[in-house]
Write a structure and sequence with these properties.
alpha/beta, 4-stranded mixed β-sheet, 20% strand
Length: 153
């Protein structure tokens, strides 16, 4: 399974972005409450990434993740098979499937229509963030520079 990549540092960034842009947080009496999706993701502490090059490997990847008590997968939009893979994994209903490397609104819409439950972006795209917020889809933008972090806030 050479094509499964793991990113543990990503989880640490999630909490910061949730607080900075308040996406998928319920704020009651000045307190922030995490969604059940984020609670489960924080408990697992690992978000496996998968760039699909062969759809026949999806059941194997799914089996390996479940055998290791991992319930999330981020399918990256680094191949033309991403939407099909998201749909196939979502239809099996065994994993919580998200889309990664989402750089524009059309890709976000396609991912969500294919069954993605969350969106991960390598950069900051306000149009994608607003669309996801409007559609109750957790979104995790990337930000590196101070300017991007300020814009995300």
């Amino acid at each position: 399974m050479k094509k499964i990549f793991f990113a543990s540092a990503f989880i640490k960034k999630l909490h910061y972005f949730y607080k900075s842009i308040k996406i998928d947080l319920l704020k009651i009496e000045g307190r922030c409450y995490m969604s059940s999706l984020e609670q489960q993701l924080r408990k697992e502490k690992l978000l496996p990434l998968y760039t699909v090059t062969d759809l026949s490997l999806l059941p194997i990847a799914e089996k390996i993740l479940l055998e290791n008590n991992l319930h999330f997968i981020e399918v990256t939009y680094r191949s033309d098979l991403a939407s099909t893979a998201i749909r196939q994994l979502s239809d099996s209903d065994k994993l919580i499937v998200g889309a990664g490397t989402v750089c524009d609104l059309n890709t976000a819409k396609d991912a969500i229509a294919s069954g993605a439950k969350f969106i991960v972006m390598p950069g900051l795209n306000i149009e994608v963030i607003e669309y996801c917020v409007d559609n109750n889809i957790p979104v995790y933008p990337g930000a590196v520079t101070p300017s991007e972090i300020i814009q995300a806030m």
